[in-house]
UniProtKB/TrEMBL annotation:
Gene3D superfamilies named in the record: Periplasmic binding protein-like II (3.40.190.10), Winged helix-like DNA-binding domain superfamily/Winged helix DNA-binding domain (1.10.10.10)
Pfam families the UniProt entry points to: HTH_1, LysR_substrate
Residue ranges annotated for the HTH lysR-type domain, each copy included: 1-58
Species whose genome carries this gene: Paraburkholderia monticola
Superkingdom field: Bacteria
Family in the record: Belongs to the LysR transcriptional regulatory family.
GO CC, any one term: protein-DNA complex
Record-level Gene Ontology MF annotations: DNA binding; DNA-binding transcription factor activity
Membrane-crossing residue ranges in chain numbering: none
Key words of the record: DNA-binding, Transcription, Transcription regulation
Keyword Transcription: yes
Name the record gives this protein: LysR family transcriptional regulator
Amino acid sequence: MELRHLRYFLVVAEEGQFTRAAARLAMQQPPLSQQIRLLEEEIGFELFERLPRGVVLTDAGKAFAEDAQRILDGLHQSVERAARIARGEIGTLSIGLTSSASFHPLTTEAIREFRRLHPDVGVDLIELNAAEVSERLAGGLVHVAFLRKPVELPPDLSFEVLDEEPMVVVLRDDHPLVARKRKQPEVELRALAHEDFILVRRPGAPGMYADILSACREAGFSPHIAREVPRMLSGIKLVSTGLGVTLVPASMQRYNQVGVVYCRLKKPHALTAPLTLSFPSTMSNGAATRFVEFMQQRFRGGVAAG
């Protein structure tokens, strides 16, 4: 039995006549009559009582018509639902983001606005480090991601820089460099030459790690890396205990850790941290495609790869 047989049957039932049904279906009457007869032979009972001027449904035909209509209606609903998923109107969007990227106001504003515009799309947020983001994206375990500096630039992933923000130094609030108690003092990078640095582990964020080391060397010293942590938030907490200093993107100041002061870097050794949107170059998830288009329309940046 084919779906077209159900459609033929329902049109004949609605028209009550093979000739009108054939015209409505844009086919000849004899082939239509033959298809209905083949359907009756397949199911083992008559659907219509043939009359001199038309046909009427048998009792079995009436029951079959109700179920056939439900089947076609359900198929139509399934196709429409699948089409909405393909268009990104419904479905689930998995977003990976590093802890520092989650503090950037653009990230939260973008996700909030997208959810307002597309309330039928479920959004899952997964916090990862930069290396994990790239791995999950490559494996299709997250659909898009917000990160700082990509670990690498594989050809099957695209990276769009949304913003560049300055890095700031995090010091304990009783550190000699902030003894003047200015609201946000400026610090020379070379003034940190003898400090213990706390950085996010190199495998997790190699790009940011390398940038900090390079900036320190330009300032005339090689930093002493006393501790490596899994997340920037962990580094800020360790600074509050007096175990060292760290550098983070300026938007991390939104994390109000007691006992620390965020200090601007004096030029010429100012460091910047990008905010990058990463996504597969070829996407099969409709919600992800719609999200990337939304981001590109509202927050245009330079494409780094892909």
